[in-house]
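FORM 7B: Structural annotation worksheet

SECTION A. Query
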Amino acid sequence: MKLKENDLIGQNPEELFLKDCLVKGLQVDRCVLYVFRLSAYYANSDVYEPEKLKWWNWQEKKE
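SECTION B. Predicted structure
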């Protein structure tokens, strides 16, 4: 799936991830979801927190 920054504005990263899995016909690595989350944050923000620009910080929190 090819996306540009403007394609991510207002998009749900989880839905993009599921669509990517469907298009490819397989379970895509979960790290791709984290990159979608980061990319959507970047596309929808004007000011960025440095820690949120690292894909691994978009993982689910472990309890």
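SECTION C. Observations
The longest helix spans residues 30-43. Residues 13 and 37 are 5 Å apart (CA to CA).

SECTION D. Sign-off
Analyst initials: ____
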